[in-house]
Specification:
Two copies of one chain form a homodimer. Chain A is an alpha/beta fold. Chain A has eleven helices and seven strands. The two termini of chain A are about 25 Å apart.
Chain lengths: ~270, ~270
C-alpha cells in the first residue's frame, strides 16, 4: 500500500527518472506496473543496484531482514530508507549493518485501513507528514536528499529522533488504534448495537478493521511507549468521567474540541 | 443540520407535497429555502398547523419546550416527531403533554461534525438507521407512517424502546465521542504530537471537534448509560493492556477487526 502510493507519486511528480518495483511475489511487482506505481518490475535484486533511493515497504518485522539482504546489492551512493511505523529498534539495527550504504529511517504518516498494492492511493500522501529519523550515525546529505524527495511528492518532511517518533506515534496512532478496538469490542457486547451505529462508530469500526498482523507487530515493537500512552489516556478518561459525575464536563470537551480544531488547521495549511 | 438534511431529502424524493421551514431566526429558514431544504419559510407557527408531520430539529435540551409551544398549533392528524440524540427523557415528557397531537420519538443516526443549515447534507442520511422509539402510549399508525417516510428518503427505520436506544447510543456514539476526546487530550499533552498525526488521529480529531454544547447536553441527559458504557469500555481496554504485557494481543485485535468487518457489511447492504 505505502510502496505503491510512493511509486505512483514519484512517477506523477516526475521526481524519479525511473521507478523500479520488486516484490517477493513477482505478480505484485507486475501489478504495480499495471497500476502506474512503477515503470518496470524486476525479479532479480541485482537490477536495483544502481538506484539512488530504495524505499523498503515491507511488514515492520521484516524490514531489518530485507535490508540486510539488500545491502550487499547496493552501492555507497544509494540511500536506503524504510517506511516502518516504529523507528527506534529498526534504526538501531540498520545503522550498524548498513554502511557504506547510507541508511535513513522514515515513516510517511499516511495510509488507509487496507493493505497491499490494490489499496495504494497517492491521494492519501498529499499534505501529510513524512517523519525522517536520523541519528548521530546518519549521513546528513542523505537526510537532505530524502527530505527533498518527500517535498517533491507533496508531503511535509519532519526530522526527529527515532525515539521521539515512537513516543508521538504511540500517542497519535498506536494508542488511538487500541482505544478504537476497545470501543468496538464494548459496543459488540450488545449485539443489537451495531445496527444503530452512526458516523462516530463508523470511524472507529474503520480503524478497527485495519490489518491485525501489522498492528500486532507495531504494538509489540513499541510496547513501552504504547503502554505509557495508554496510561496518559486513562488519566484523561478519568478526568472526563469525574467531570460527568459532577455535571461539569464542558470545559474538558472544549479543550478536546480546540485540539481537534488546531489539528484541522495544521492539516489544511 | 439534521432538519436541513431531512427537508432536502423529503423534497428530492418527492415524499412531501410541501416542506415548510420554521426557525426562531427567520434568516435561517430563508437560507433553508435557498439551499433547497424547504419550499417555503414561515415566521408564524400558525402556518404549520395543517402539516402531516412536524420534525422538531432543535438542540436536545430545547425539544420539550419547543414541542410544548408547537402542540397548541397542531391538529390531531399531525404527527409530531423529534430528532434528539437521547430518547427516554424526551419521550417521557412529551407523551404526557402531546395528545391529542400524535407524538413519536425518533433519531436519525447520521450527521457530520458540523452544525446548522450550512452543514446539512442529505447524502449523510442515505442507508443510515433511523431509530423510532414508540412506547405503550404511542399511536401505532403514526409509527407506521413515520417509518414509511423514513424508508422513502432511503433510510432504515429501526423500532425500539427509548431506553434501548439510549443504551445502544451510549455504546456506539456517546462513549466513543468521550473516548476520542480523551485520546486527543492525551496526545495534546505532547504539543509536538499534533504535527505527526496521521489518518487514525484525523478521525479522532474530527469527532472531537463536533459541537461541545450538543455533546454536553447529550452526555448529561444520558449520563447513567454513558457511565455504564465507559465501564464496559474500561473492561475491554484492561483486557487489551494485559494482553500487550503478555505479548498476546492478536486474538483481541482479531475480534475487534471482525466487529469492524461486520459493521461494514451491515452498512453496505
Amino acid at each position: 500500500m505505502i510502496g505503491g502510493a510512493l511509486g505512483t507519486a514519484l512517477r506523477r511528480e516526475g521526481v524519479a527518472r525511473q521507478v523500479i518495483a520488486f516484490d517477493c511475489d513477482p505478480a505484485v511487482a507486475s501489478r504495480a506496473v499495471e497500476r502506474g506505481a512503477a515503470d518496470v518490475a524486476v525479479s532479480d535484486l541485482r537490477e536495483v543496484a544502481d538506484t539512488q533511493i530504495v524505499f523498503v515497504a515491507v511488514p515492520l518485522d521484516q524490514i531489518v531482514a530485507v535490508c540486510r539482504l539488500l545491502i550487499s546489492y547496493l552501492s555507497a551512493e544509494t540511500i536506503l530508507t524504510d517506511v516502518g511505523s516504529v523507528k527506534a529498534p529498526v534504526v538501531a539495527s540498520l545503522e550498524r549493518i548498513a554502511p557504506p550504504v547510507r541508511f535513513v529511517g522514515g515513516h510517511p504518516m499516511a495510509g488507509n485501513e487496507g493493505s497491499g498494492i490494490e489499496a495504494a492511493d497517492p491521494a492519501f500522501l498529499r499534505g501529510r507528514p513524512y517523519v525522517i529519523t536520523p541519528t548521530g550515525f546518519t549521513d546528513r546529505q542523505a537526510v537532505t536528499q530524502l527530505a527533498d524527495v518527500v517535498r517533491a511528492i507533496g508531503m511535509t518532511p519532519l526530522v526527529m529522533q527515532p525515539e521521539v517518533h515512537d513516543r508521538l506515534a504511540a500517542l497519535t496512532s498506536h494508542m488511538p488504534y487500541l482505544v478504537a478496538c476497545a470501543a468496538v469490542l464494548s459496543a459488540a457486547a450488545e449485539p443489537e448495537s451495531l445496527g444503530v451505529g452512526g458516523p462516530t462508530f463508523e470511524g472507529f469500526a474503520r480503524i478497527a478493521r485495519s490489518p491485525v498482523t501489522l498492528w500486532g507487530v507495531i504494538t509489540r515493537m513499541n510496547r513501552d511507549e504504547v503502554l505509557r500512552a495508554l496510561r496518559e489516556f486513562r488519566g484523561r478518561l478519568d478526568d472526563i468521567e469525574k467531570s460527568l459525575e459532577t455535571n461539569s464536563v464542558e470545559p474538558l470537551l472544549e479543550r478536546a474540541h480546540d485540539v481537534g480544531q488546531t489539528f484541522a488547521g495544521l492539516r489544511s495549511r
